[in-house]
Amino acid sequence: MIGKFLFSLFAATATFLGLSAGAVTTSQNIDIIVTHGAPLTTFTFVNNTGNTLPAGSPVSFGQAFRYGDIMPGSYPLIRDAATHVALPGQQWDEISSWRENGGNSSWRHAVWAAWLPKSLANGATYSVEFVPAAGSYSQSSHQALSALCSGPAAHDLKIHLTDVRNQNDTVRDSGDATFRLCDNIANVGRDAPRHLRAGNVYDEYQVNGMFVYTSGHKDPLLYAQCNVDIFTKASDGVSAGDIRHVCHVINAFMNVAAGSTGNAGNPGPAGFANDPQAVSYRPEFLDGSTVVMDWSGLDATINSAANPVVPAGSVGCYQGLASYCMNVPSSVGTNAWYFGMPVRTSCSATCVAGLSKDTIYYVYPSSVVGSNDVNAPQYVTLSLLPKSDAYASLIANSQGTGTTGFSFRVQHYHWEAWQTLDWSGQDNWSPFGATT
After folding, report:
1. What does residue 356 show for φ and ψ, rounded to 5 degrees?
2. In this structure, are residues 297 and 335 in contact, taking their beta carbons and an 8 Å threshold?
3. What is the model's pTM?
4. What span, in angstroms and rounded, lies between the C-alpha atoms of 37 and 134?
5. pLDDT of residue 302
6. The predicted structure's pLDDT at residue 36
7. Is 222:177 a contact under the CB 8 Å cutoff?
8. Which residue, among 193, 133, 422, has the nearest Cα to 291 in the 3D structure?
């Protein structure tokens, strides 16, 4: 039986082979599915800069993850959502994990950065996808803080304050103070720089220090903290490129008695007379000798011949706030005067509206309260107090003579801070080889 079975099987096989040899050749398309690893999610953003972003431009966003998506021993790989190719330059920072109440320590939220693999026109979108990858995430520093102050990518960044005055309006020290970042990159102790982020896309540092007057004295009240990102060029993955920066100016540094010599060991400057207190000044941000940001757009000159004072009830002049308002023609758009904004007066002859020269006043737009026209921000009232009410208004029925100038000021109260940002709130960039 066994021999017969084998013979029969051999004969059937030979018959099959013979039939195949004489058959007509045919073809059939067979779909092949290539898997790239299922993405956890995708992220799409739009270029709204108003310019084309060239290939290699760094972009940075935040990304949240579901509980358990990225477990310890894995990390999210960033890929082009269309091609599924990993982006050549990518970096994760500020990684937070689920640890509360016995959590599994999976990733919860992080900030990612990457180089664009292609140019992106204004208004165009680009999508990435996040895919779990095995291994522990790690990065190394590519740019030292010294790259900010020497070499082809250097930028001499400074915050310059002029007309610095005490709360009683007397000039503070020499009245001219500067915080220069490059003078503070070698600080030690409490003022030492901090390395906040590191990777192949950029390194971030916090540079801290004090304002120094032209007299050489350090101001015991004012303190600066600047976060500076030094980006690595995508072209070679090594050289320093563009710089991104935002600074905080803080009036909260003073903790010694007025006129004293400082804390034990003299880690800080002596207090000035009557400190701590509010101070006023006019700020600007410079890259070298170039002013790259100031607030001069909020300055204004009022011509008395144009009859700028109008009675309450006029268009834009809310009668519940004041008896009279002043028309400031330049107070429109991004230069619109805002609630509580300090301005200092200068008068060529008789000040408009009965105001006094060389005095700080606080602005209150009268068109944005009550039932008046919010599209008429030119109409304002002024006060000697940072408080809005009808009884504090100082606009009188007097057109004055000549011109009256209003110069923007920062009124910096104790325990408060402000950032070196313009009206858009976007971070500042200093491109490689340029001061813009």
Report:
1. -105, 145
2. yes
3. 0.85
4. 12
5. 97
6. 55
7. yes
8. 422
Residue that has been written with the tokens 């007066």 in this structure: 345
Per-residue confidence (pLDDT) for residue 313, from 0 to 100: 82
Token pair 């600007």 is found at: 284
Encode pLDDT of 119-159 as tens digits: 999 999 999 999 999 999 999 999 999 999 999 999 999 99
Question: In degrees rounded to 5, what are phi and psi of residue 21?
Answer: -65, -30
Lookup: tokens for 52:
């084309």
140, 142, 146, 147 alpha-carbon torsion, rounded to 10°:
-160
HEC letters along the chain: CHHHHHHHHHHHHHHHHHHHHCCCCCCCCCCCCCCCCCCCEEEEEECCCCCCECCCCEEEEEEECCCCCCCCCEEEEEEECCCCCECCCEEEEEEEECCHHHCCCCEEEEEEEEECCCCECCCCEEEEEEEEEECCCCCCCCCCHHHHCCCCCCCCEEEEEEEEECCCCCECCCCEEEEEHHHCCCCCHHHCCEEEECCCCEEEEEEEEEEEECCCCEEEEEEEEEEEEEEECCCCCCCEEEEEEEEEEEECCCCCCECCCCCCCCCCCCECCCCCCCEEEEEEEEECCEEEEECHHHCEEEEHHHCCEEECCCCCCCCCCCCEEEECCCCCHHHCCCCCCEEEEEECCCCHHHCCCCCEEEEEEHHHCCCCCCCCCCEEEEECCCCCCHHHCCCCCCCCCCEEEEEECEEECCCEEEECCCCCCCCEEECCCCCC
Burial class (CB in 10 A: 0-12, 13-18, 19+), 322: buried
Q: What is the pLDDT of residues 204-259, one digit of tens each?
A: 999 999 999 999 999 989 999 999 999 999 999 999 999 999 999 999 876 666 66
Question: Which residues of the chain, if any, have pLDDT below 50?
Answer: 1-23, 32-35, 390
Report how far residue 191's alpha carbon sits from residue 268's, in angstroms, rounded to the nearest whole number.
Answer: 10
- What distances in angstroms separate CA 424 from CA 79, 355, 375, 427, one per listed residue? 30, 32, 20, 9
CB 116 within 8 A of CB 59: yes
Amino acid present at 160? H
